[in-house]
């Protein structure tokens, strides 16, 4: 996403072919505010329109890097538990169970 938010939600869903994937919009280089290409309002607006959380990170200072990782893991775990409740033990064969996928952009 050079210089802006060129990707759109429909493109991502088309590539992943699954609407039920854990998804976060993450902005990096949060320590370089004076060089930002996407405004905070634009990023937050895009995340809101997609219905996903937005988090700004900095690999240099490690701000929110762990938060994004752990939030994503919690979301995967939550969806897995929800899937287990929905199947209510009906699908004991693990080979037939749909695997959860996560995407980090």
From TrEMBL:
Region (Disordered): 80-105
Membrane topology designation: Lipid-anchor
Record keywords, A-Z: GTP-binding, Lipoprotein, Methylation, Nucleotide-binding
Annotated SMART domains: RAB (SM00175), RAS (SM00173)
GO BP: any one term: signal transduction
GO cellular component, one term: membrane
Record localization: Endomembrane system
Record-annotated membrane-spanning stretches: none
GO MF terms, alphabetically ordered: GTP binding; GTPase activity
PROSITE patterns per UniProt: RAB, RAS
Domain of life: Eukaryota
Biased composition (Basic residues): 93-105
Name used for this protein in its record: Uncharacterized protein
């Amino acid at each position: 996403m050079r210089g802006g938010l060129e990707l759109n939600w429909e493109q991502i869903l088309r590539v992943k072919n699954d609407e039920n994937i854990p998804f976060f919009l993450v902005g990096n280089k949060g320590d370089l505010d004076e060089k930002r290409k996407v405004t905070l309002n634009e990023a937050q607006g895009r995340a809101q329109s997609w219905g996903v959380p937005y988090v700004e990170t900095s690999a240099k200072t490690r701000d929110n890097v762990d938060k994004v990782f752990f939030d994503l893991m919690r979301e995967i775990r939550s969806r897995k538990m929800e899937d287990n409740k929905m199947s209510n033990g009906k699908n004991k064969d693990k080979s037939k169970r749909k695997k959860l996928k996560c995407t980090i952009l």
